[in-house]
Amino acid sequence: MANLTNKDKAFLIRLARSVIEAALDAGQKETIPDDVSPAVLKNGGCFVTLHKKDALRGCIGTIEPLQALVEGVEENAINAAFKDPRFSPLTIEELPDIDLEVSVLTVPQKLTFKDPEDLTRQLKPGVHGVILSSGWRRSTFLPQVWDQLPDPETFLRHLCEKAGLHRDCWRDPETVVEVYEATYFS
What we know:
Number of strands: 8
Number of helices: 5
Mean pLDDT: 94
Radius of gyration: 17 Å
Distance between the termini: 17 Å
CATH superfamily of the largest domain: Hypothetical protein ph0010, domain 1
Low-confidence stretches: none
Strand content: 15-25%
CATH architecture of the largest domain: 2-Layer Sandwich
Largest sheet: 4 strands, antiparallel
Strand order of the largest sheet: 2-1-3-8
CATH class of the largest domain: Alpha Beta
Helix content: 25-40%
Structural class: alpha+beta
């Protein structure tokens, strides 16, 4: 996981907000400071989550470390604000009520388990983000989602439904489960 300083985290939050503000013609995009740490420039998976008065207002991310963290935060901030299919695009009027959270992910690791009970035993609520894949369908929940769904079976059922699959798809031995960890800050 990236070794981000508090200064890096503050910069990434400012960057996420500034690209949204710039897209709404309400401000200018933050520039990368000269003293930013190398961790911000390394490839990393990340998500940007928007909350409006404690309710989810958008969340988009990239799981795999395919681009520099700074680029991922910019792209995912725009996508969370304007392209999350669950929500209408963010408006300038909503901006003062928006809180941002950035999650920086470790590289996902496939879990090997012998049966559904073994799977639920291996999951670490509050620590693991989980990716569930079956065929071409795939979904993920960040580790923070455990706060709303603390029971592993309930968590996995909701993850199946998010992927558009039967709610007990996680019990199918053909279903692939991967886990990752996240550092998140707002």
